[in-house]
UniProtKB/TrEMBL annotation:
Gene3D superfamilies: Hexapeptide repeat proteins (2.160.10.10), MurE/MurF, N-terminal domain (3.40.1390.10). Its EC number is 2.3.1.191. Keywords: Acyltransferase, Lipid A biosynthesis, Lipid biosynthesis, Lipid metabolism, Repeat, Transferase. CDD domains: LbH_LpxD. The gene is lpxD. The active site is at H238 (proton acceptor). Catalyzes the N-acylation of UDP-3-O-acylglucosamine using 3-hydroxyacyl-ACP as the acyl donor. Is involved in the biosynthesis of lipid A, a phosphorylated glycolipid that anchors the lipopolysaccharide to the outer membrane of the cell. Belongs to the transferase hexapeptide repeat family. LpxD subfamily. It comes from the Bacteria. Homotrimer. InterPro entries: Hexapep, Hexapep_transf_CS, LpxD, Trimer_LpxA-like_sf, UDP_GlcNAc_AcTrfase_non-rep. The keyword S-adenosyl-L-methionine does not apply. One of its GO terms (biological process) is lipid A biosynthetic process. This is UDP-3-O-acylglucosamine N-acyltransferase.
Length: 342
């Protein structure tokens, strides 16, 4: 694809030859001749002058030197995502129908265009909407309902009574609807399992990464709101509610009966205790340990979690402790000397 075609599609401004042939996309560091790259994070600005890419997509106000052609756009990150789609070779979509090795219960209802992959099991009472793909080695439990145009990658398990909306994507190895972690403590200290009779509800347009665990409710529903995006290796406990369009990054975890508002961000390895309320648009920083409610639009970090400005001051003060220790030692020596002279 000629660079001029890319510029025209993006509606950008070109600096350099319009006849450059672009054959692939790549990062600034690994790009070579024929590749187009991009700059969105100022941290990598110096690489624009040394990259071997044939062209780089940059913000419109970019004012530094470059070693290649530049494509100026309003949003370089979004523009590069568009370009990447043009060069992506999408694998063939699984064919509609049931693979001979799959096991589908007689009472299961499959919509038009549904694909059931090899060795998958579809239990009694399941309803799967039109054009949904159940990949190889998946398990869809009793009376699970899956909406149209959804896609379950290999090795996904959905336990009984799970409800999954339309256009939901669930990646490899995720388990939806496993029992919540609930036990009653007996007088002798032993623990007796509490029956988990609720379900998991996943609303429309949710994407769930690989190896995520979403527990069924003790009673009622564990709910993942519309448009939520969940990264790999996330734990969501029983009766948790994740608000619409909230993002949960890798290895974050939420304990039972906590409610996360809409359009929140839980950064990597953030951990939330149970029975909390997190307000809309809140941000929980990486590795934060949240022990109490988080107000709407708050930004907390640290363990225990605190407002991010308070955390920054604490860290800054901690860095000065060695110097303060030396100063105190000096003052102690001076006091001791004065006492000896007295």
């Amino acid at each position: 694809m000629k660079l001029s075609e890319i510029v025209e599609k993006l509606g950008g401004a070109l600096e350099g030859s319009a006849d450059i042939e672009i054959s692939a996309v790549a990062g600034l560091g690994e790009a070579g001749a024929g590749d187009i790259s991009f700059l969105a994070n100022p941290k990598y600005a110096a690489q624009v002058s040394s990259t071997k890419a044939s062209a780089v997509i940059v913000p419109g106000d970019w004012g530094r030197e470059a070693s290649c052609a530049l494509v100026r756009v309003e949003n370089s990150d979004q523009a590069f995502a568009e370009v990447a789609e043009w060069f992506y070779e999408e694998p063939p979509r699984p064919k509609a129908g049931v693979h001979p090795s799959a096991v589908v219960a007689e009472s299961a209802q499959l919509g038009e265009g549904v694909s059931i992959g090899a060795n998958s099991t579809i239990e009694e009472g399941v309803v799967i909407g039109a054009n949904t793909v159940i990949s190889a080695n998946c398990y869809v439990g009793y009376k699970t309902v899956i909406g149209e145009d959804s896609f379950l990658y290999p090795l996904v398990s959905t336990r009984e009574f799970t409800e999954i909306g339309r256009r939901v994507i669930i990646h490899n190895g995720t388990v939806v609807g496993s029992d919540g972690f609930g036990y009653a403590v007996q007088e002798d200290g032993s623990r007796t399992k509490i029956l988990q009779i609720g379900k998991v509800v996943i609303e429309d347009d949710v994407e769930i990464g690989a190896n995520v665990a979403i527990d069924r409710a003790r009673f009622g529903k564990t709910r993942i709101g519309k448009g939520a995006k969940i990264d790999n290796l996330v734990q969501i406990a029983h009766n948790v509610v994740i608000g619409e369009h909230t993002v949960m990054c890798g290895q974050s975890g939420v304990s039972g009966s906590t409610t996360i508002g809409s359009r929140c961000i839980l950064a990597g390895q953030a951990g939330l205790a149970g029975h909390l309320q997190v307000g809309d648009h809140a941000i929980v920083g990486a590795q934060a340990g949240v022990m109490k409610d988080v107000p709407e639009r708050a930004f907390v970090i640290g363990s225990p979690a605190m407002p991010h400005l308070q955390f920054k001051k604490m860290v800054a003060n901690t860095i000065t402790l060695p110097r303060l220790k030396d100063k105190i030692k000096q003052l102690e020596d001076e006091v001791a000397l004065l006492r000896r002279k007295a």
